[in-house]
Amino acid sequence: MHKRESSEEPGDVALAGRLLFLAVAMFGFGFLLVPIYDVFCEITGLGGKTNEVAASVEESVVQDREIKLGFVTTVNSYAPWEFSPAVEEMTIHPGGIYEATFIARNLTDQHKIALAVPSVAPAQAAKYFKKLECFCFTPQEFMPGETKEMPVRFIVESNLPDYIDTITLSYTFFDTARQTDASTAAVHTAH
Questions:
Q1: pLDDT at 151
Q2: Whole-angstrom Cα distance, residue 59 to residue 55?
Q3: What are the backbone angles phi and psi of residue 15, rounded to the nearest 5°?
Q4: With helix as H, strand as E and coil as C, how does the chain read?
Q5: Is residue 70 part of a domain?
Q6: pLDDT tens-digit profile of 93-140?
Q7: How far apart are the first and last CA of the chain?
Q8: Within a 10 A sphere around the Cβ of 113, how many other Cβ atoms?
Q9: Residue 166 and residue 156: Cα distance in Å, rounded?
Q10: Can you say how many angstroms the Cα of residue 25 is from the centroid of all Cα atoms in its chain?
Q11: Is the backbone peptide bond immediately before 94 cis, with ω within 30 degrees of 0?
């Protein structure tokens, strides 16, 4: 009287197969999202990403055009640092090579390693902002209480669109040891 219909089983298998395919596709999309985003930002100049490798450029100053360049720094909320630009703003000419200095100080009595991640706003200006020398993306070692001056040499290319007259270079300073500790803790709690 309670015979199970055999037509339900193939439907259940097909549904499980579709759900499994969907899960694998979602994982694959999530895995590829970061490289796809990086390529998209590189092509379009969106996202405020600057070059990660020092650029090689020739100076060609446009004397009759001035750009206001502002500097902003952020320290991750849990990071024990002071981090600031030596000057908050400068006026530059596109095509000229300039240098700005950032000052960081380890506020602890321990050896620390920090990492600075840059961003440029407006995002359209990022592809014209080229770093020639930079402390960013390179782990910076600090002894207890040490203060460092960290320069960045850059050029804003002379073909920067006319509608851009103000650029902001911002850096976020991270304590890499805490990031490593947090990643390790997350892995250990997952197991």
A1: 94
A2: 12
A3: -65, -45
A4: CCCCCCCHHHHHHHHHHHHHHHHHHHHHHHHHHHHHHHHHHHHHCHHHCCCCCCCCCCCCCCCCCCEEEEEEEEECCCCCEEEEECCCEEEECCCCEEEEEEEEEECCCCCEEEEEEEEEECHHHHHHEEEEECCCCCCEEECCCCEEEEEEEEEECCCCCCCCCEEEEEEEEEEHHHHHHHHHHHHHHHC
A5: yes
A6: 999 999 999 999 999 999 999 888 899 999 999 989 998 888 887 899
A7: 47
A8: 15
A9: 11
A10: 27
A11: no
Q: Which two tokens stand for residue 124?
A: 């359209």
| Cα–Cα distance measured from residue 168 to residue 70, given in angstroms and rounded to the nearest whole number | 5
CA distance 147 to 142: 8
- Tell whether 138 and 78 lie within a shared domain: yes
Q: Are 105 and 138 in the same domain?
A: yes
Q: Which domain holds residue 23?
A: 1-44
63 shares its domain with 150: yes
CA–CA distance, 45 with 42 (Å, rounded to integer): 5
pTM passes above 0.85 = no
